[in-house]
Amino acid sequence: VLKQSHPQTAGHVFMPGTVVEINNGIVTMTNELFTDAEIADMFTNKWAYFENQRATRQAELVAEKASRAPVPADLFEQVKAWWEPLMKRAPILCDGIGALVRFTIGDDDLVADFPKGEVRRYSDEACRYWFTIPADLVATNLRDHEIDWSNSIFLSVRFTAGRIGKFNEYLYTFMKCLSEQRIDYVENWYSEQSDTGEDVRIDDWLVQRRCPHLRADLSKTGTVEDGVLTCSLHDWKFDLASGRCLTSQGHEIRASKI
Ligand code: FES
Does one domain contain both 180 and 81? Predict the structure, then answer.
């Protein structure tokens, strides 16, 4: 259909095993898992292909289900202890979500109140977004400390969801950034959108406001000792006179002595 309506556009089908090489604008594609005949067969005999998958891959499904964690009695407390500190670190993200989100997880019914940065038990509140997720999937993520619930739960389509109003990009971003490092990166990225190469004064140095590592606000995280700036978020160090990063390759900093 794409080819007919936009003949000048080249569409490509990427699938497991596809290797794409781009050389001077020329795209070549090969597949290491399937022959051309097998791929053509998948698309022309779809139901037979699915039936064959179902018949031959039952053991994998059984093994995957058996690998899931038992549901802990303190599931609610674990989610609360994990998410609340992340919410506190991410005021812009929480502001972007700006609503109550209900999670029904097996017998647990909880609300993530992003404006207040709080996770609590659900009590008949009006929520803008809601999810129902099998408890063993959440239990497995808790056991494995899986920081990306978008990949592990939402892409599995083993959940139901609803919302009032538009899709909220911030909410799905939160669900895939469930670690301090990821949430800091995203929060700093959002904050940087309104930051235009600004400098801040730290002691008798003028330095760029955003840390060259993951863009922390150096007016809050930076300290200078003997001409070396340390960003407390991950303890990276920078020699201010030369601008050189002492912790990693590259990552130069803009700084001048006042
Ligand atoms: S943001 Fe990581 S050290 Fe500054």
Answer: yes
ipTM: 0.98
Report the nearest atom of ligand 1 relative to the CA of 188.
1
What tens digit of pLDDT does each residue of 79-138 get? 999 999 999 999 889 988 989 999 999 999 999 999 999 999 999 999 999 999 999 999
Shared domain for 124 and 27, answered yes or no, is: no
**Strand 255-257, strand 205-208: pairing:** antiparallel
Q: Pick the last residue of a domain from 164, 186, 208.
A: 186
Give pLDDT tens digits for 17-70. 999 999 988 889 999 999 999 999 999 999 999 999 999 999 999 999 999 999
When divided into structural domains, the chain yields a total of: 3
Q: Residues 109, 122: contact at Cβ < 8 Å? A: yes
Centre of ligand 1 from the C-alpha of residue 233, in Å? 5
Are 186 and 90 contacting, i.e. CB atoms less than 8 angstroms apart? Answer: yes
